[in-house]
From TrEMBL:
Superkingdom field: Bacteria
Name the record gives this protein: Fe-S cluster assembly ATP-binding protein
Organism of derivation: Pisciglobus halotolerans
Ranges where the ABC transporter domain occurs: 4-246
Similarity field: Belongs to the ABC transporter superfamily. Ycf16 family.
Pfam families tied to this protein: ABC_tran
Stored InterPro entries: ABC_transporter-like_ATP-bd, ABC_transporter-like_CS, FeS-cluster_ATPase_SufC, P-loop_NTPase
Length: 257
């Protein structure tokens, strides 16, 4: 079992404190949902875990199996088993989807253990079929000319090919119609198991109807304000953030990120 532990995390952006002491423990075999109002720091949390240079960790720790993630460069974090599916994936001309994914897979392997081409192709064909994606997607340049839904499916394809230890899915449901949402959920659910953990950042209960989380965290004011089971997301759907914030004696503040 692997453990991703976030302890007392404070993060600032351009001198403004966004995260104000986040504590969260994610283990393999678990799927956690992080929910909260706009601007409460959910995306800031994902960016800080992966080492985005615009986000400054001023206090706290991020540990992966006891190792200090904050001392790792972004590529080292990825090779250590962390994966971030971003809300707005970049378009990269000149590198095909297939080339990118094979390079990412092999970056996590020793020289003598690189994935053979035929094994890669078989795995790619299998995952494309599962996600209902046409084979030509593999030969298109990375996200170039992709629709929003295609980009999100492509993030899940990368997740399934790379097989990280922990995945952070930052609003992967944003802008998806119900069919695309179901496909994305199918891919994430196929990854669930003892060797994989996921943190799903979302505003809405809708996605959690298809990917049922083990744990739900509500973020408010730059902290985890409340933690519970999947029923917490259902309660949130009925009551909204205002009801929960009033119960906790918190004011919903809009932070950035």
């Amino acid at each position: 079992m692997s453990v991703l532990e976030i302890k007392g995390l404070h993060v600032s952006v351009e001198g403004k404190e966004i995260l104000k002491g986040v504590d969260l423990v994610l283990k393999t075999g678990e799927v956690h949902a992080v929910m909260g109002p706009n601007g409460t720091g959910k995306s800031t949390l994902s960016a800080a875990v992966m080492g985005h240079p615009s986000y400054t960790v001023t206090q706290g720790e991020i540990l992966l199996d006891g190792e200090n993630v904050l001392e790792m460069e972004v590529d080292e974090r990825a090779r250590a088993g962390l994966f971030l599916a971003v809300q707005y994936p970049s378009e990269i001309a000149g590198i095909t989807n297939a080339e990118f994914m094979r390079a990412a897979i092999n970056a996590r392997r020793d020289d003598e253990d690189k994935m053979p081409v035929m094994q890669f192709i078989r795995k790619l064909d299998e995952k494309l079929a599962l996600l209902d994606m046409p084979e030509e997607m593999a030969e298109r340049y990375l996200n170039e000319g992709f629709s929003g839904g295609e980009k999100k499916r492509n993030e899940i394809l990368q997740l399934m090919m790379i097989e990280p230890t922990f995945a952070i899915l930052d609003e992967i449901d944003s802008g998806l119609d119900i069919d695309a949402l179901q496909v994305v959920a199918k891919g994430v659910n196929a990854m669930r198991g003892e060797g994989f953990g996921a943190m799903i950042i979302t505003h809405y209960q809708r996605l959690l109807n298809y990917i049922v989380p083990d744990v739900v965290h509500i973020m408010m004011g730059g902290k985890i304000a409340l933690t519970g089971g999947p029923e917490l997301a259902q309660r949130l759907e009925k009551e909204g953030y205002k009801g929960i914030s009033e119960e906790l004696g918190l004011q919903i503040e809009a932070a950035e990120g």
